[in-house]
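Example 3.2
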Amino acid sequence: MSRPPATSRKLRRMLVLLALFLTCQPEPKTGALNSVRGGVREQLQASNADGEGFAWSWGRAVSKADGTLDGGEAEDNEDPCLEASSAKEEVEEATTQAKAGFDQAQWLQKTAEQIRQFGVDEVSSWVRAALEADNYAHKVQEITEILKSEDVMGTALLKLTAEKMQKVGIRLGPSAVLAERIAAVSAPPTAASGLQAGALNRAGS
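Structure, written as tokens:
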């Protein structure tokens, strides 16, 4: 069998690609798609006299357009946009659940003895509660990452001062807020109860 001219092969390839492109458009009209198929069929027949190359190319194009594979099985087409939207919704739901499960007041009621037992993760939660209560929620991630990198756990947290925090890159505002909270927890029971009550009032307002 003689090989079809290069021009015919290129034309056939372009027409098949055009058919595939049009079938990939969202919700194509059946009448328009059939019209394109008919036009492509006529052009391919004209460009390939023996018809064999057309039969193979057109069969592949139609099977793609119909959403079937060579074996006749339906092709599993998933819209990437839908997948991205679903993933975004899952992230938002997980974030909402995490916020719902975080009890700010409960963390701020922890005593010095309880805080001494904190690991790195518990320190992050306590610091988060303290910062959010004083309008520094936007600094939570940055500051907790710094404290994690410095391996600050419960006992070390109670020894932090504003100056020490500033040395590791925590800015003046949030470091002052945290230092005040730490001083309130570390103070004698009577003084600490008064300071904690004021802190809780600010958190609840």
